[in-house]
């Protein structure tokens, strides 16, 4: 095997406020107020902006994303399953606590789906307690399920103490962990439909309004509205600041953004978590895109072909498009391409046969490895014997000459032997005559 390498390298040193290890410098110039931020392109799984994403933070009501997960994964039918509202379950909530209004429905049954709407839209702490009691037998039992799920999802610095997110020093997460939780929630049927709803009226309740003003052009005079926003959950505590987890979708280009710990004062009354999120989405859609680095039409290398005439070579191409999330004005000179394939292949070759692999990097971002394949069919037009003779002609001539030499020597030696025998016989006859 011979390694064929095509290297196109240049180095650019850029001053940048937020740099992630082993990632492209996307040159984000957005100044964020939130203490911890995580922005990921969901199409490629690429993290394009991080700020203290592994810093321990209080999640406030973004906790309810995990409450939704645990509930949905433990209740078989959200519509047909109803829960009786118990007074002792919702007792003790602060009068200023955000609720869906269950206190006026004690003794009644409410579907789990309606409770989930009440959990996610007005951020109902009463709905969180009712669901925790039904699914986990109470706060502690439900929190155990939440923490088990967090561990299962790969969260490394998350611990839940309750289902609603009210302050507890043992209730914390990170922006990165919250992104893992949100991405899993987005795969659950009904989750995005519920958290992306602006208004919803459960049977017998007042209309519920989503606290995520990025979804509603009429909320707060449209100050926070961003048309591509999809869900997900707001949060606020004095100890946590403004928190927000959202996704966005612009023509199929999808992002997930987590902002935790944005400072807030009632005097200023500005939700900087929403402001940060809108600015980050705007920057990403304006500056980044999925770029096609190579396509199956691009020849990456040529290899010799055995058992064909006229020194024919085979062009090898990517098996599929090689794409990556890169700046729209990315520099080709910063690509590093490494093609690995044999120096020679044997005919016959069929178009699409895997010949080797190609790996591509841009700056420090590994864009992955894909197969490279034959670009055409090539038939064999030389027999193996002919190839052998052609390739080993010199050796064959040497062997033939050696055989001829050996034969000549054998003949010479044989002739010499016959002469010696003849002389011995001649001497023997002469000696016999003398004796007679």
Describe this structure in words.
The chain is α+β, with helices and mostly antiparallel strands. The protein has three domains: 87 residues, Peptidoglycan synthesis regulatory factor (PBP3), Domain 2; 254 residues, Beta-lactamase, CATH 3.40.710.10; 30 residues. It is 30% helix and 25% strand. Helix 1 runs parallel beside helix 4, helix 1 packs across helix 5 and helix 4 crosses helix 5.
Quick rundown:
It is built from 10 helices and 18 strands.
How are the SSEs ordered, and which strands pair?
Blueprint lengths: L2 E4 L29 E6 L4 E6 L12 H9 L9 E3 L2 H4 L18 E3 H9 L4 H12 L2 H14 L22 H11 L5 H5 L3 E2 L7 E2 L19 E9 L3 E10 L2 E10 L9 H16 E7 L6 E6 L6 E6 L3 E6 L7 E6 L3 E3 L7 E9 L2 E10 L9 H8 L1 H43 L1
Parallel strand pairs: 12-16
Antiparallel strand pairs: 1-15, 2-3, 2-10, 4-5, 6-7, 8-9, 9-10, 11-14, 12-13, 13-18, 15-17, 17-18
| Poorly predicted segments | 1-22
- What is the makeup of the main sheet? 7 strands, mixed
Walk across the major sheet and give the strand order: 1-15-17-18-13-12-16
The dominant shape is: elongated
CATH classification, class level of the largest domain: Alpha Beta
Radius of gyration: 38 Å
Helical run tally: 10
Q: How far from one another are the termini?
A: 84 Å
CATH homologous superfamily identity of the largest domain: DD-peptidase/beta-lactamase superfamily
What is the helix/strand order? EEEHEHEHHHHHEEEEEHEEEEEEEEHH
What's the CATH architecture of the largest domain? 3-Layer(aba) Sandwich
Strand element count: 18
Output mean pLDDT.
89
Structural class: alpha+beta
Q: Name the beta content range.
A: 15-25%
């Amino acid at each position: 095997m011979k390694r064929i390498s095509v290297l196109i390298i240049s180095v650019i040193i850029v001053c940048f406020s937020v740099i992630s290890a082993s990632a492209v410098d996307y040159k984000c110039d957005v100044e964020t107020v939130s203490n911890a931020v995580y922005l990921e392109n969901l199409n490629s799984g690429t993290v394009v902006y991080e700020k203290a994403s592994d810093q321990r933070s209080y999640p406030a009501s973004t906790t309810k994303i995990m409450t939704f997960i645990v509930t949905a994964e433990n209740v078989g039918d959200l519509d047909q399953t109803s829960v009786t509202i118990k007074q002792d379950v919702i007792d003790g909530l602060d009068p200023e606590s955000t609720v869906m209004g269950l206190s006026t429905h004690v003794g009644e049954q409410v579907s789990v789906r309606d409770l989930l709407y009440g959990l996610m839209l007005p951020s109902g702490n009463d709905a969180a307690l009712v669901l925790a009691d039904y699914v986990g037998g109470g706060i502690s039992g439900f929190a155990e399920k939440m923490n088990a799920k967090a561990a299962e999802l790969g969260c490394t610095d998350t611990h839940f103490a309750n289902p609603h997110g009210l302050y507890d020093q043992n209730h914390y997460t990170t922006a990165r962990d919250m992104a893992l939780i949100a991405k899993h929630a987005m795969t659950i049927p009904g989750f995005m439909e519920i958290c992306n709803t602006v208004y919803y009226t459960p049977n017998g309740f007042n209309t519920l309004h989503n606290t995520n003003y990025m979804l509603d052009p009429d909320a707060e005079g449209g100050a926070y509205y961003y048309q591509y926003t999809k869900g997900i959950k707001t949060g606020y505590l004095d100890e946590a600041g403004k928190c927000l987890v959202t996704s966005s979708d612009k023509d199929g280009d999808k992002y997930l953004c987590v902002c935790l710990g944005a400072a807030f004062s009632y005097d200023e009354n500005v939700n900087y978590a929403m402001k940060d999120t809108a600015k980050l989405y705007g920057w990403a859609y304006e500056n980044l895109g999925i770029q096609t680095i190579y396509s199956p039409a691009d020849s990456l290398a040529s290899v010799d072909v055995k058992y064909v005439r006229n020194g024919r070579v085979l062009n090898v191409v990517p098996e599929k498009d090689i794409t990556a999330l890169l700046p729209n004005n990315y520099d080709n000179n910063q690509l590093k391409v490494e093609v690995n394939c044999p120096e020679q292949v044997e005919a016959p070759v069929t178009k699409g046969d895997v010949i080797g692999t190609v790996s591509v990097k841009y700056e420090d971002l590994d864009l992955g490895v894909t197969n490279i394949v034959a670009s055409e069919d090539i038939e064999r037009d030389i027999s193996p014997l002919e190839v052998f003779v052609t390739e080993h002609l010199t050796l064959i001539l040497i062997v033939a000459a050696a055989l001829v030499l050996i034969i000549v020597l054998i003949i010479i030696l044989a002739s010499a032997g016959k002469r010696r025998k003849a002389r011995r016989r001649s001497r023997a006859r002469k000696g016999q005559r003398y004796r007679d």
